[in-house]
Amino acid sequence: MKKLLFSTLLIFSGGLFAAEYEVKMLDNGKDGGMVFEPGFLKAEVGDTVTFVPTHKGHWVQSKVVPEGAEKFLSKEDEKFSLTLTHEGVYVYVCPPHRMMNMSGIIQVGQPTNLDNATKEVEKIEKRTTEHKGRLFEYLDQVK
Known about the structure:
The chain is of the alpha/beta class.
């Protein structure tokens, strides 16, 4: 009986320990230019990330998500919250500022889809005109 009660408490308490993160969409970040801060985030399944447009003209769109996770697209100039439902690597961009490498990565648990994420990062970096290498730096943090 005690084991059953303990197991039930563990299952229902999962949401109690979920973390909440904030990613700012900035016109001018610490390293210059349009940027998400932080650009790399390590989280766990059940955590929530809220993207905050601190300046006008920004939104967020997924480019790669783990298998089974839903792609996402926010509205311009609006906060957007995403609950991370699947383990893996999420790669995202601000569509109007993609050429400036306004992009980021979230690693949730194990990087189960690292090959797909790497291919997309290579595509994004190839099309970037400013801040080349930024997304590769974020990808290097995935472990």
